[in-house]
Every structure is written in structure tokens, then in C-alpha cells.
Specification:
The structure holds two protein chains of two kinds. Helix content of chain A is 21%, strand content 22%. Chain A is an alpha/beta fold. Among the domains of chain A are: 125 residues, Rossmann fold; 77 residues, no CATH class. The radius of gyration of chain A is 21 Å and the shape is globular. By secondary structure, chain B is mainly alpha-helical. The mean pLDDT of chain B is 89. The chains are: A alpha/beta, B mainly alpha.
Chain lengths: 450, 396
């Protein structure tokens, strides 16, 4: 029974520099990296040391909390460096890649004949498991639990987001195989959620064994958290798993070929990109092979992921495990003379205290300024306007600030993730670091639940 | 602009860690951020941020109060010359007289309030919040023009310290700061804050005399006698009391007489989304409903005052637009805002009509509902919690 759901509250921020639908080849990645910091809550334990030769799919490290969950090399080569930070935390595992990729071979039977436990084991051993994440807590799925459903959001509604209809066009077989594998992981439904107001690509509409739901409305309609909230809300003790559509295809390719094919399409977008477009590359690719001179002059910020939730990287950094785009924004540290009272015509605001509401369809070129300082909460009702949950966002954030676990649970923390609060953080008059507050609350509850 | 930057940069080292004036950093910071929005960029979370900040929000509210302030200045002069029997005084004379009377009150309010904010900022080592920018304008506008300046200073001091700073400063207070100042004055100096003598400035220059039929009574005071006939400061009967009260050519506190000027401000606040239209609308509806109920069961002249007139008399319009909508002390949930505003409307008119000691009720109604707002929110949120619990169970 497919459902059509209209999201009313939210905000589409229109920005200059969305990626043109052109597939280019990125430069050959001479190095690739896996960053343990992409996986919240894991305790990585290395399985290789510098100088070891690895194949694509060779485990590099595992999670001490769930020893079967392996994290594997995306390409074959030698382990060039294990970068550590303060307290010897592993920051990056860098692999110097071979010219020709050699794969670890797994013997995979036809997925149709496997049961959930078998699929789970194969996925954990082959390095696919981290692609499956869960709500609550927004972390890698706990393999010891059984989710009540699995969600795939086939579109990303955030600003300058990659278009999965374009990325996955023509990959019907891999995507379908991926769905067949992950649907073994739950006794419940697999929800595939597409945009309601445009026709989704055949790769999604022809998918079998899923419930296809249509979502219309502004961002964050594409967030799985919003979709779960409207289709199958999570209560205490329950969990729902979710997978990015491009990762579904990667999982599918593995179950067809028996090898970990880490190729991935990454969108390069943002006002500071000369020719924004899509690049064929691999998971964990260096940003430099994608940027490759395709950016404008001036001070810039490079973001692995989208501008609302992504991670800041350097131009010689690496694309994150869960990121399918690189965004480039102008960086500007110039203080503004009486900036709080000036008309500020070029700036964007969700409120009408500035003038951007006069031109709702204009594409803005925004920099990374805070545009003010952090203050105590004064304004109310602002978060609710961009937060399409039956949850009181400001009250929830406050309950996290004061560490009131009982209130957090009552107010619905299990249903949300930091990304759902990204717009709240953007529009906040008091400039509160809302996403990190929510993450702290989730981590507190997750650690208590262990 | 370059000059300011250079001055700031040259004195900055004194205020930074290890500098001579380190503990005064909040004061320096306040000046620096007043002149320049700092150029710092988003470090955690979203990489772009809305262009709005608290300063912008506060300045928009001040802008919304400007019509009421300007009208108040003119009306102070107008009422004065009317009381003196000189209704032919020129516009300029009225404005000049009004400005001389009103602006010192504004200056004292800001000077005392910001002084307290700076002192607490320095003591507590936190940056100086913008909340007082609005409070500092609200206090003069809700006071009678005849008030001595020392009382303005004492009331502001009391309100900012006891009404706000003891709770932790801007954003933490429970009751509206400006109304705290007004309530303090009302209960501490009742003779100077009510009655017939305080609403019109009747200082006489040599050779001037009062008009023959002079009265300083406000419309609300007159309503206890009759719901139909009202006289102005010169003792002349108003021809159309509704439009006079709507325009604001009546005696009253400085900024509250002109419903028209207040509506201009309300339009700006609602349009920019800074004040809650839910509170304003439900407040007006509540007051109107209460007025109608009194009309239906009228046993005295005040209960006979047409409901529509109740909306334009006294400080109701000012209170519901500028005071009730203070987001810190109002209900914070949308459903709570409807209830909160509606009850303010009901109680304003109820207190106004039934309290013989003091004919205006909006101040007490808002303060009372400020106290009740967390309770309203509590029940609204409990409703949401149980609804969500049920929904999860149904879905499961």
C-alpha cells in the first residue's frame, strides 16, 4: 500500500551552483582513505599496519563493540599511513592505490535462497554492513537487533543535493539485487520513498519487493527521519534501519559479483565551483581528484556532504563514507560595519526581517558566516516552522541541554537525528549549535542503552 | 568605518586574556559587536546561517515602536496645550514641548538599564545581551508623562535586576521586564501613577492658566460615570469617542493612546514574523468577547462601554501588541499562544471593569498570564507526549 505524504513545514534554500547532469570521470585516485570518525560510536581496532598489501574489500579495522563489523579497503594497494590524532585516535587510514584494482573474492550464493542471518554475516564480513544505519541514534545498525522496517530515501532534498534519479539511472539490476539483500534483514516492510511532484527514475519505480511512497514538500522531506515519522514512527526500544540508494546499488553489485565494488558517483556543487557536475569516482576518494582546478579564486570552504550536515575538509582531504557530494562555499571573515541594521540585500533569511522573502526563487550565493553571535533563547516558534515532526523541537533541545533523560525520551528524541535539526540550526536567531546538541543527547542515550 | 575598526583593533589587546582590562571584555565586546557584526564563520553543524540575529530582531521591534513614540511626543504637547486652553498652539510647539518631556524619560530608562546590563555582564563574564534595547523603549512608552525622572530610574533598576538579572539575564526572565517596572511604580507610588493628575503635563509658564473645564481624567476613569459621554482635557465633549481613542488624541501613558500608531507597529511585527500573530489575534478576540459579555449583563456604566471601545481605550492595544508578545515570557508553543493571548484579553477587560482601585487591567492581566504561561505550555506538551505515545502504539 503505497502512501502519498505532503510535508508542509520546512524550507528549500535555493543556492547558486547545483550540479549539472553531466557525468565526468574524476582523476584516478592515487590514494583513498577511510575515516573512522565517519562512523559515530565505533571503537576501531586496526587489522592492518602500514606497509601491508590489501585488496579492494580487505578488512582494515573492525569495531570493538561489534567485532564482526568490518571496515574494508575501497581499492587495492598498500596501507600508506595510519594517521592518528590526540590520544592516538585513528583519524584516517590511507591506502596508496594500485593502477589496476584487485578484489577480494567472496562466494555468494543467490541472495534469494539466503536467510536474514546469512545475508547479515556476508555483509558484515565484506564491509557492506556500515552502509546500513539505524534510527534511533543515527549510527551503524546494531546487528543484534531486528528492525521493524527498512527505509530508503530515493531523493535528497537538501540544498545543492545530488540527484539520485540521475546517479542511479540504468543501474536497475544492481539496485534490485541490493533491495533483495536488505529486505532479508527485516520481517517488516522496505519503504522506498520518492519525490511526489516529479516522476522518479525507472530504477526506483520498477523496484520490486518494496513499498513505494511519495513525499512532496520542502526540505527536510527527503530525510529518512521525516519519512519514518510520517509512515512508521519509532517508539522506545524499536529501531528502523536505513540505507542510502547509491549504497543499495553497491550492496547489489556485491551480491551479483561477489566483490566489493566501491565505485560511486559524487556531485560537485556550490557557488565556488566553476562547472558543477557529477564525477565517477570511488568511496573515500581524495577531494583533489574531483576538484582538479574546477573551483573559483578566493577563500573557500570544502565540505564533504551537503552544506547543512556535511563535514568540513581541506582541499587535500577525502570524501566521507556517507557522503555523495562535495560542496564548495565562499569563506569570508570580514566583519560587517553595522551589519545588524544594514538592509543586507544579498543575504538570505527565513524571516521577513530581511528582504530575501521578496525573491523566493532567487538563487543565493551564501558564505559561511554566522551572521551574529550565540545568545540565550529568546525567539520561539522559529524551529517549528522548519521542523515537520509532531515534536516540540525547542523543548527537546532544551531538555538535552539540561541532561534531562526522561524529558528527552518523552519529547521524542528517538525519532530524530542531527540532520533533522539542520534547518533549525540555520534559522536560529540565537545561533545555537543545535545539531551538536542533538548529537550529544543521542550519544548519551545510546551509551546508556548499551 | 575604517577608523572605528582601527580604534577597536588598537584597544582590543587590553581587553583580551592577559590584558589590563581583561574583566571588562564583555563591555568591549558589546561595543565591538554593536559596530561590527563579527566575521566569525560556522564551525560546527550547518555551514550556512540565516542572516538574522538577536540584534536585528530587537531593532525591528524598536522600529515598530517608533510610530507610537512619535505620536506620544506630539500627544504630550497636544494634551498640554489643550489643558491650558490653547488648542491653537502650532504643531511645532506641541512637538517641542512633547520632546522636552518625553525624551529625558527615554534617556534615563536606557542609561540605567544598559548600565545594569553592562555591570552584570562584566560580573558574570557573559556577553551583553540585546534584550534591554526593547525594554528600554517599552518602559517610557507605558508611563505617564508626569512621572519624575528619579522614579523612572528606580523602576528601571528594580525591573532589570529583580525582573531579569536574578533569573540569569535576557531569555531567562519569567515576567515581562517593562511591566515589572510599571507594576513596581504602580504599587510603590500609587498616587503618582494613577488618578487624574499624572496623564497630562500641566506645568504652567508664567502668565498661563488652565482651561476652564480642565480635567485630567482618562477615558477609563470617565467610563465609571458614563459609557457614552466623555470630555477631553479642556472639558469639551468628544463628538466621536471611538475615532478619538483610535487616533489617540486622548490622555494616557506616553505611547499607548494611539491605537492607529500601535497598529502600524503591529503590522510590521506580524509581517516580519517577530511578534506572534496568534497572541495578538486571540488577545483581541478575548477582550472583545469579554466586552460583549459585560454589555449583555451590564449593571453599571463601565459594563455598558461598547466592546469595540474597550479595545481602543487605555493601554490594551499597546499591551497586547508589544508586551504580551514578548517571546520569553509568553507561551512558547503555538497552541499555548492561543490560550495565553485569549486569557490576557479576557482578564484585561475583567480587571479593568471590576477593579475600582485601578481602571486599567492589561498590565496585571499580562503579568498574571506570564506566570501562567509555563503551566499552559506544560499541558500542551503533555498532550503532545501522550498523543505521540498513542500513535506509536497504534502504528505498532
Amino acid at each position: 500500500m503505497s502512501k502519498e505524504i505532503k510535508i508542509k513545514r520546512g524550507k528549500d534554500i535555493r543556492l547558486v551552483g547545483s550540479a549539472d547532469k553531466i557525468n565526468a570521470n574524476a582523476l584516478h585516485a592515487e590514494t583513498v582513505a577511510l575515516k573512522p570518525s565517519d562512523f559515530i560510536g565505533i571503537r576501531p581496532k586496526m587489522l592492518v599496519k602500514e606497509g601491508d598489501v590489501v585488496k579492494a574489500g580487505t578488512p582494515l579495522f573492525f569495531d570493538k563493540n561489534h567485532e564482526n563489523v568490518k571496515f574494508v579497503a575501497p581499492l587495492s594497494g598498500t596501507v600508506a599511513e595510519i594517521k592518528r590524532g590526540a590520544k592516538r585516535v585513528i583519524l584516517e587510514v590511507i591506502i596508496k592505490a594500485d593502477k589496476e584494482t584487485v578484489y577480494e573474492k567472496h562466494n555468494v550464493a543467490d541472495v534469494k535462497g539466503m536467510n536474514g542471518e546469512q545475508v547479515k554475516e556476508v555483509m558484515m564480513a565484506s564491509g557492506l554492513w556500515p552502509m546500513v544505519r539505524q534510527r534511533p541514534f543515527d549510527v551503524i545498525a546494531n546487528p543484534n537487533e531486528e528492525p521493524k522496517a527498512i527505509f530508503i530515501s530515493a531523493f535528497d532534498s537538501s540544498p545543492l543535493a545530488p540527484d539520485y534519479d540521475f546517479i542511479l539511472h540504468g543501474q536497475d539490476a544492481a539496485f534490485q539485487a541490493g533491495i533483495e539483500a536488505i529486505s532479508k534483514l527485516t520481517a517488516g516492510k522496505v519503504h522506498l520513498n520518492v519525490r511526489g511532484n516529479v516522476k522518479a527514475d525507472d530504477v526506483f519505480t520498477n523496484a520490486k519487493g518494496v513499498q513505494i511512497n511519495k513525499f512532496t514538500g520542502p526540505h527536510p522531506a527527503g530525510n529518512v527521519g521525516v519519512q519514518m515519522h510520517h509512515l512508521d514512527p519509532i517508539g522506545k526500544g524499536e529501531s528502523i534501519w536505513f540505507v542510502n540508494p547509491q549504497d543499495v546499488a553497491t550492496i547489489g553489485k556485491f551480491f551479483i559479483s561477489g566483490q566489493f565494488d566501491a565505485s560511486r558517483v559524487i556531485a560537485l556543487a556550490g557557488s565556488e565551483v566553476s562547472a558543477p557536475k557529477y564525477y565517477r569516482t570511488v568511496l573515500g576518494a581524495p577531494a583533489s581528484t574531483i576538484l582538479n582546478g574546477n573551483t573559483k579564486e578566493g577563500s573557500k570552504r570544502f565540505i564533504s556532504g551537503n552544506i547543512l550536515t556535511g563535514t568540513r575538509i581541506e582541499d587535500n582531504g577525502y570524501v566521507g563514507f556517507y557522503d555523495h557530494q562535495i560542496s564548495v562555499l565562499p569563506e569570508n571573515h570580514e566583519p560587517e560595519f553595522f551589519g545588524w541594521i544594514a538592509p543586507n540585500f544579498g543575504k538570505w533569511s527565513a524571516s521577513r526581517a530581511l528582504f530575501s522573502w521578496l525573491t523566493p526563487n532567487k538563487e543565493y550565493k551564501l558564505d559561511t558566516k554566522m551572521n551574529g553571535e550565540e545568545r540565550a533563547y529568546v525567539v520561539t516558534g522559529q524551529y517549528e516552522a522548519v521542523f515537520p515532526f509532531e515534536i516540540y523541537p525547542q523543548q527537546l533541545v532544551k531538555s538535552i541541554m539540561i541532561d534531562d533523560v526522561e524529558s528527552m525520551e518523552e519529547l521524542g528524541i528517538y525519532e530524530v537525528a542531527p540532520e533533522d535539526f539542520a534547518l533549525c540550526e540555520v534559522v536560529c536567531t540565537s545561533k545555537m549549535p543545535v545539531q551538536s546538541i542533538v548529537r550529544n543527547g543521542l550519544e548519551k542515550l545510546r551509551i546508556e542503552s548499551l | 568605518m575604517k577608523i572605528f575598526r582601527n580604534i577597536l583593533d588598537s584597544v582590543k589587546p587590553n581587553f583580551e586574556k592577559g590584558g589590563k582590562l581583561e574583566k571588562y571584555y564583555p563591555a568591549y565586546d558589546a561595543f565591538e559587536t554593536f559596530l561590527f557584526v563579527p566575521g566569525h564563520t560556522a564551525n560546527t553543524g550547518a555551514h550556512i546561517r540565516d542572516a538574522i540575529d538577536l540584534k536585528r530582531t530587537m531593532v525591528t521591534v524598536i522600529l515598530a515602536m517608533v510610530p507610537a513614540l512619535l505620536f506620544g511626543i506630539w500627544n504630550t504637547g497636544y494634551q498640554h496645550f489643550l489643558a491650558l486652553g490653547q488648542p491653537d498652539a502650532t504643531f511645532l510647539e506641541m512637538i517641542t514641548f512633547g520632546a522636552i518631556k518625553v525624551l529625558p524619560i527615554v534617556v534615563v530608562s536606557y542609561a540605567v538599564g544598559l548600565g545594569v546590563e553592562f555591570i552584570f555582564g562584566i560580573i558574570n563574564g557573559h556577553s551583553i545581551n540585546e534584550g534591554f534595547l526593547v525594554t528600554g523603549m517599552l518602559i517610557p512608552l507605558c508611563l505617564p508623562v508626569g512621572i519624575p525622572l528619579w522614579m523612572v530610574a528606580v523602576a528601571t533598576l528594580f525591573a532589570v535586576v529583580i525582573g531579569k538579572e536574578v533569573f540569569g539575564g535576557t531569555g531567562m526572565n519569567i515576567i515581562n521586564v517593562a511591566l515589572t517596572a510599571r507594576a513596581f511604580l504602580f504599587f510603590a507610588y500609587p498616587t503618582l501613577m494613577s488618578g487624574d493628575k499624572v496623564w497630562i503635563d500641566t506645568t504652567l509658564a508664567s502668565g498661563e492658566t488652565m482651561a476652564d473645564g480642565y480635567t485630567g481624567a482618562t477615558l477609563l476613569a470617565q467610563s465609571t460615570e458614563s459609557a457614552t459621554t466623555y470630555v477631553n482635557a479642556a472639558g469639551v465633549q468628544y463628538t466621536d469617542i471611538f475615532s478619538s481613542a483610535f487616533m489617540g488624541t486622548i490622555p494616557g501613558s506616553i505611547g499607548e493612546t494611539s491605537t492607529l500608531a500601535i497598529l502600524l507597529g503591529a503590522a510590521l511585527l506580524i509581517y516580519t514574523g517577530i511578534a506572534s500573530w496568534r497572541i495578538i489575534l486571540s488577545g483581541v478576540v478575548g477582550a472583545f468577547v469579554m466586552g460583549l459579555i459585560f454589555n449583555a449583563f451590564a449593571v453599571n456604566p463601565f459594563m455598558e462601554v461598547p466592546a469595540i471601545n474597550q479595545l481602543v481605550f487605555g493601554g490594551f492595544a499597546f499591551g497586547i501588541v508589544f508586551m504580551a508578545t514578548d517571546p520569553v515570557t509568553a507561551s512558547q508553543t503555538n497552541r499555548g499562544k492561543w490560550i495565553y493571548g485569549f486569557l490576557i484579553g479576557i482578564f484585561s477587560i475583567m480587571i479593568r471593569v471590576f477593579n475600582p482601585a485601578y481602571p486599567e487591567g492589561v498590565m496585571l492581566a499580562i503579568l498574571f498570564m506570564n506566570i501562567m504561561a509555563p503551566l499552559i505550555d506544560h499541558y500542551v506538551i503533555q498532550g503532545n507526549i501522550s498523543k505521540r505515545l498513542k500513535r506509536v502504539k497504534v502504528a505498532a
